[in-house]
């Protein structure tokens, strides 16, 4: 894996939407939200990992957050979604990993929760674990992510800017035929719209024809799938949306619906074998919930934040080899040239 630090999209003038980002332009701009990773790279065939999103401090099993899961396309191996649908609550950290690691990661997450102070008498835990399939660069059958890696990701979870790109659950992922990975973004609503924050984190591993800020980047790069020799298709995406707006599960699920529109804006084909899921939660403890007519700004923020997080996952990812293949990172300079030609590029951040 290259040690090169690549820019975020906004650093080089890619601006998505109309709402400003939060201070870190990350899901951790929502107060109390923390993110951690464990990256597993071994030999020539292991390229995988786990990413943890902790919705807020305290004991989630005793005091869950309001949450929802929206299914864009259900070809996936998520655990815990039915209880979230039924109760409208999330009672554990949210973990992302690769497909065949899901049961091992869920088992380790149960261990972690049971060992927390206050949970000595617990006899039920609903681990929420989602995945994408990193089989192109990783030996999926090896299933190397277990207790040690899960505990590392959870114990390293922090409120600062999360690492992005080829890291954690995004280590072996591929998006639009380029190296995919972890991306994040946030939006801050004006006081007239409640002043709420909304943050997004994505694990990108899906296909389509890459579009950035409306510009047909994939088409003009004439990029081909590394395997099929045709347009990049297939794969999955997991989107996690956090907000400090006080929302019930129904309106959180409506936000999940809009987040998939953000994925669509990047050129996703939503293929038959894609596991496209959005996990949404409110970190608010406020019991007075936002009414339906005040949801529109949050809907727009979810679309914008998701679109930018997907783009950031590509900008930040580095080229990677594994299992006899090399998947190149999105080429920055040719991409910027295309964006300039389509008048889709503004001044760099601070420029």
Can you put this structure into words, describing what you see?
The protein has 351 residues and is of the alpha+beta class. The chain has one domain: L-amino peptidase D-ALA esterase/amidase. The protein is 23% helix and 24% strand. The protein is built from seven helices and 14 strands. Strands 4-3-12-11-10-9 form a six-stranded mixed β-sheet. A four-stranded mixed β-sheet has the order 1-2-5-6. A hairpin with an 8-residue loop joins strand 9 and strand 10. The two termini are 30 Å apart. The relative contact order is 0.22.
Largest sheet: 6 strands, mixed
From N to C, what is the helix and strand string? Answer: EEEHEEHEHEEEEHEHEHEEH
Residue-averaged pLDDT? 95
Helix fraction, binned, reads 10-25%
Count every helix, treating DSSP H or I runs of 4 or more residues as helices: 7
Gyration radius from CA atoms, angstroms: 19 Å
Q: Please give the domain count.
A: 1
- Side by side, the strands of the main sheet go 4-3-12-11-10-9
Specify the CATH class. Alpha Beta
Instruction: Specify the overall morphology.
Output: globular
CATH homologous group name: L-amino peptidase D-ALA esterase/amidase
CATH architecture: 4-Layer Sandwich
> Stretches where pLDDT falls below 50 for ≥5 residues?
none
Q: What is the SS-derived class?
A: alpha+beta
Q: What percentage of the residues does DSSP assign to strands (E)? A: 15-25%
Distance between the termini: 30 Å
CATH fold descriptor: L-amino peptidase D-ALA esterase/amidase
| Tally of strands | 14
């Amino acid at each position: 894996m290259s040690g090169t630090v690549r820019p975020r999209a906004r650093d080089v003038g890619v601006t998505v939407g109309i709402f400003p980002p939060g201070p870190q332009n990350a899901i951790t701009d929502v107060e109390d939200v923390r993110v951690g990773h464990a990256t597993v790279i071994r030999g020539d065939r292991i390229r995988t990992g786990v990413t943890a999103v902790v919705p807020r401090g305290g004991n989630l099993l005793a005091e869950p957050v309001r949450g929802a899961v929206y299914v864009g396309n259900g070809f996936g191996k998520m655990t815990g979604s039915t209880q979230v649908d039924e109760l409208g609550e999330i009672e554990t950290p949210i973990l992302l990993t690769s497909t065949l690691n899901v049961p091992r990661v869920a088992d380790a997450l149960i261990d972690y929760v049971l060992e927390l102070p206050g949970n000595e008498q617990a006899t039920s835990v609903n681990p929420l674990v989602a995945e994408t399939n990193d089989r192109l660069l990783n030996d999926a059958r090896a299933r190397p992510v277990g207790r040690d890696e899960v505990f590392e990701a959870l114990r390293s979870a922090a409120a600062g800017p999360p690492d992005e790109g080829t890291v954690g659950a995004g280590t072996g992922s591929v998006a639009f035929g380029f190296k995919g990975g972890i991306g994040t973004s946030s939006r801050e609503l004006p006081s007239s719209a409640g002043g709420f924050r909304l943050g997004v984190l994505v694990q990108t591993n899906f296909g389509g024809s890459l579009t950035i800020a409306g510009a047909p980047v994939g088409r003009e790069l004439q990029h081909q799938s590394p395997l099929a020799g045709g347009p990049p298709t297939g794969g999955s995406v997991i989107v996690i949306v956090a907000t400090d707006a006080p929302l019930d599960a129904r309106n959180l699920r409506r936000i999940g619906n809009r987040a998939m529109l953000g994925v669509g804006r990047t050129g996703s084909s939503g293929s038959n074998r894609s596991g496209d899921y959005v996990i949404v939660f409110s970190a608010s403890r406020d019991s007075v919930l936002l009414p339906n007519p005040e949801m529109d700004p949050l809907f727009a923020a979810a679309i914008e934040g998701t679109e930018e997080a997907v783009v950031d996952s590509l900008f930040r990812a580095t080229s990677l080899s594994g299992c006899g293949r090399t998947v190149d990172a999105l080429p920055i300079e040719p991409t910027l040239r295309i964006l300039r030609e389509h008048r889709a590029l503004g001044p760099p951040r601070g420029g």
